[in-house]
Amino acid sequence: MDQRTLRVLEFDKIIALLAEKTCSPMGRERALALLPSACRTEVGENLADTRDGVTLVLKRGGAPSFKIPDIRQSLERVMAGGGLGTRELLGAAGFLGACRAYRHYAGDEAQEEAWENRQRSRMRHLYTDPELEDRIRRAIRSEDEISDDASPELYSLRRKIRERQEAVRDRLSDALTSSKYSKFIQEPVVTLRDGRYVIPIRQEYRNDFPGIVHDVSASGATLFMEPLSVVEANNDLKQLKIREQMEIERILAVLSRDVADRGTAIADSIEAVAFIDFVFAKAKMALDHAGTEPILDQEGQILLRKARHPLLDRDRVVPVDAGVGREFRTLIITGPNTGGKTVSLKTIGLFALMTQAGLFLPAADGSRMAVFRDVFADIGDEQSIEQSLSTFSSHMRNIVALMREADDKTLVLLDELGAGTDPTEGAALAMSILEHLSQRGSITVATTHYAELKVYAETTPGVENACCEFDLETLKPTYRLIMGIPGRSNAFAISSRLGLDERVILRAREFLSSEQIRFEDLLTSIEKDRKAAREERLEADRLLQEMRRQKEEDDRNRAGLEGKKQALLREAREEARKVLSDARREALDIIKRMHSLEELPDRKTKNREAQ
Questions:
Q1: What contacts 24+ positions apart, CB below 8 Å, involve 160-166?
Q2: CA end-to-end distance (rounded Å), the chain
Q3: How far is CA 141 from CA 60, 117, 136, 246, 249, in A?
Q4: Burial grade of 515 (CB within 10 A; 0-12, 13-18, 19 or more)
Q5: CATH topology for 153-241?
Q6: Residues in the chain with pLDDT < 50?
């Protein structure tokens, strides 16, 4: 990949952002070494790794962010027969702990999730050794301290050392409080010199105090002397300390040997952890920038939907919709200065590099990107005083170099093509360059101010116009990229809005050719039609939303009425059932009474009761 392109498109800043999201020096090295690949298969694999990382984070929660120590040099030395110190052994335990944490994050294979991906599989295959990790942590409290429980022997030695120290201090305290030696003592304190307990004695009593001099104060007025009564105890203490240090060295040697025995497995996990950390960094960056996976287009097409340059403020950047490569392979972007042309150009180029580096794009779903053999960019002014190159010469030198390499597998980005020289010749040269690149099959995106290139794009097959929108009411760019429409210069409109005498503007228009005036008028008409169409579309969208809301309300009302209707029907049916039941009960009662009349002997009474 062209190194100058990587620099001018600020790919290094993207890599720096990626490196910041790693947890280990190994992962950071991988991130900093990342470069775009021209191999489609490799690009697909790299994007799949990022997708696996994102999927895992979304399913399992936030990506692991613990610090992972770099133990590569320590492991290399111990496998060669060397020993490790406390700091290095703690580093080994920390690395094994990180592997254990990764495996826990990945989850057990027996868990209910039916999904699987390569990132999860890598974590499950990391080497872990909880027993060795625990022994190291129990034996070493910190980089400066070995635990008493590191071994029974060390525990016993330290207990004896404490007992001897207590006995020595007791004897020295007796000497300090003795009336016999009180006048000899400079200060009633016990201190250490060369690992031996001593007391400060005045210089003038050196020969009167029975003991051995171990140190002298800076002024020479005080001698630090070991009383003869504690020499034997101090000697015993010294021997115990020597044995303690030997036991510590033995413990460290055993732990070092245990690490060495597992060296190959640990080394394999170091490589795996570096890659896991690197993949999680890509996933974190994708999620932080609301990134999506680009579709790898096989026909050389670029299609960006709501693309946001990742180095700009996410809350302020205006998304870009751009496409090139299917119906046309050359796109010419026009518009005012500071209107967003260069940002659009850089966004297209940077997204191509990010895709080929296996990174997700801060864009909407459905964005497509081809895989290019190389990306060439001539952006910015690299005028060299030392080489006496003008702005035009500097640009031409870059263009000459890239035209030698350009073909149907390359993306070419040209900023302010033909600028820096006579406008007429610059425009003619620009058209010729674009025609040559088109014939070579390159996908080309260029920015320009030249009206001739706007006409060229309108009249040449395979070439399309685009413009960066400008609001004449506010005299500010909107930074929206509009496909299919050339941009206006807006010089007269801006000057008029700023208060330039209208007669000056009218006179300036007289200097334009009739063709230029007609072209500007055409652009003005197109701009008005576009704005009108946009307003009508917005109004249509508003009406459509209103209709949808009204329909939803009507549906809710109908549903409510239907519910009431069903409730009333249920109530009526229940009432009808009750009336029918009462009528049936009354009818049965009457029939029963009629039957009972048959038993009456008197006919008149029977008729009267029946009546």
A1: 160/240, 161/237, 161/240, 161/241, 161/244, 164/233, 164/236, 164/237, 164/240, 165/197, 165/237
A2: 116
A3: 33, 38, 9, 18, 15
A4: exposed
A5: MutS, DNA mismatch repair protein; Chain A, domain 3 (1.10.1420)
A6: 112, 383-388, 517
pTM attached to this predicted model: 0.75
Integer Cα distance of 344 and 307 in angstroms = 9
Token pair 């800076």: residue: 218
Strand order in 211-216's β-sheet? 191-193, 196-202, 222-227, 211-216
Strands across the sheet containing 302-307: 295-297, 368-370, 302-307, 320-324
Q: CATH classification of 10-129+262-288 is 2.60.40.1180, yes or no?
A: no
The per-residue pLDDT for range 308-352, each reduced to its tens digit, is: 999 988 888 888 899 998 889 999 998 776 668 888 999 999 999
The answer to whether residues 21 and 285 touch, using CB atoms and an 8 Å cutoff, is: yes
**pLDDT for residue 388:** 42
Give me the residue spans of the domains in the chain. Answer: 10-129+262-288, 153-241, 295-511, 534-610
Give tens-digit pLDDT for 444-483: 999 988 888 888 888 899 999 888 877 666 666 677 888 8
